[in-house]
């Protein structure tokens, strides 16, 4: 989807296509960061003494 939206934007100059392109790029990095943060939180909870 990211590649298509960029190609569409490049051919047409459509701002909505560019926004979709930017959104699709930030989603994947945002998901990775959220997953890494969740993993770190789970490790902290597992290591905490009861």
What does this entry look like structurally?
With 50 residues, this protein is mostly helical. Helix 1 runs antiparallel to helix 2 (15-47). The protein contains 2 helices and no strands. Helix content is 88%, strand content 0%. The termini are far apart. The longest helix has 33 residues, at 15-47.
Please tag this protein with its features.
50 residues; mainly alpha; elongated
Structural class: mainly alpha
Low-confidence stretches: none
Distance between the termini: 47 Å
DSSP summary: helix tally:
2
Mean pLDDT: 74
**Would you list the SSEs in sequence order as H and E?**
HH
The best one-word shape is elongated
β-strand percent reads under 5%
Rounded to an integer in angstroms, the radius of gyration calculated over CA atoms is 18 Å
Sheet of most strands: none
Oligomer: single chain
Number of strands: 0
Estimated helix fraction: over 70%
Précis, in short:
It is built from 2 helices and no strands. It has 50 residues and is mostly helical. The protein is elongated, with a radius of gyration of 18 Å.
Would you spell out the secondary-structure blueprint of this structure?
Elements: H1 2-12, H2 15-47
Helix pairs in contact: 1-2
């Amino acid at each position: 989807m990211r590649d298509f939206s960029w190609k569409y934007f490049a051919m047409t100059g459509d701002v909505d296509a560019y926004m979709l392109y930017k959104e699709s790029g930030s989603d994947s990095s945002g998901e990775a960061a959220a997953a890494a943060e969740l993993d770190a939180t789970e490790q902290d909870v597992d290591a905490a003494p009861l």
